[in-house]
Amino acid sequence: MNNRKTAIRFFTIADYEEEEVWLHNQHKNGWKLSRMIPPCFFIFEKCTPEDVAYRLDYKNNTETNNYFQIIRDYGLCQVFVGTFLIFFMKL
To answer: Which range of residues forms the domain containing residue 65?
Structure first.
């Protein structure tokens, strides 16, 4: 059985909520986001299906340790930091 999969899906900046829902549904079906390769390649790892909320933030290269601490304080954990996006999830 394959423990990894790659999905090709294109989202624009305006589609971030749709992207969050799509990632949520992937996790609910047992596929956790591992990383994203712009513009449209999503790498997933097999996982236990869970009801996980994904959130996206667009990078502006001013993220600091304080920024990431605030994110952790809200109960989010960092999944992947890409070139333009930061992916978070909350169990």
So the answer is: 4-90
